[in-house]
Amino acid sequence: MKKSIILITFLCHLMAGFAQQADFQKAVAKYKNHKHVTAVATKTTHKNAVAQDQVTKGTLEMKAPSEVSITMEGGKDQLLMQGDVFTMTVKGKKHTTSSQKNSQFVTFQAVFESIMAGGSKDLSKFADLQTTKQGNTLTLTITPQAESKKAAKRMLFSSFVMTIDTKTSELKTLRMNERAGYTEYSFTGYQFK
């Protein structure tokens, strides 16, 4: 009886993973035929201790197979993913890490690479990724799991939340949740090349 319950539970999880992958593939299919995507980016920085959010404008640029750049204020602030290397520039100061050194970025990297590949990369193996669909919005939530309490304290972000418009295949928002607030990017004016 126990083995039957375990098998049924496993099959349910497997079927849910296939359904989530299918929803994701449909949502980002447009990228398969485009190697370069640009959009207008609006960055909202919310700090719990500050009454007013900070809002700036910039650009999003994605190039296949694995380059994503969100640039604000002429490059003073930038998020850059080049393969497994991540560079964050804040007020002109660069901080670099990689998904090899910093496990919280492994799934984040895989999601963006799969978006640029039109959903052809399988994301069902990532236990820290949850996908939900509501109407025309697909939401991907990545909640990195720290290997230890010490590693958890060093994590920059507690989660990443991305929303994709399933009709237009456009990444609408990217939110990076931190201990004392969040940074959210919203994207409009897409150009697929």
Task: Write up what this structure looks like.
The protein has helices at residues 2-27, 106-116, 149-154; strands at 36-47, 54-63, 67-72, 77-82, 85-90, 93-98, 129-134, 137-142, 159-165, 170-178, 181-192. It has 193 residues and is α+β, with helices and mostly antiparallel strands. A hairpin with a 2-residue loop joins strand 10 and strand 11. It is globular, with a radius of gyration of 17 Å.
Outline:
The chain has helices at 2-27, 106-116, 149-154; strands at residues 36-47, 54-63, 67-72, 77-82, 85-90, 93-98, 129-134, 137-142, 159-165, 170-178, 181-192.
The succession of helices and strands, N to C, reads HEEEEEEHEEHEEE
Give Rg in angstroms.
Answer: 17 Å
Helix percentage range: 10-25%
**Tally of separate helices:** 3
What's the SSE blueprint?
Layout: H1 2-27, E1 36-47, E2 54-63, E3 67-72, E4 77-82, E5 85-90, E6 93-98, H2 106-116, E7 129-134, E8 137-142, H3 149-154, E9 159-165, E10 170-178, E11 181-192
Antiparallel strand pairs: 1-2, 1-11, 2-3, 3-4, 4-5, 5-6, 7-8, 8-9, 9-10, 10-11
List the keywords:
193 residues, alpha+beta
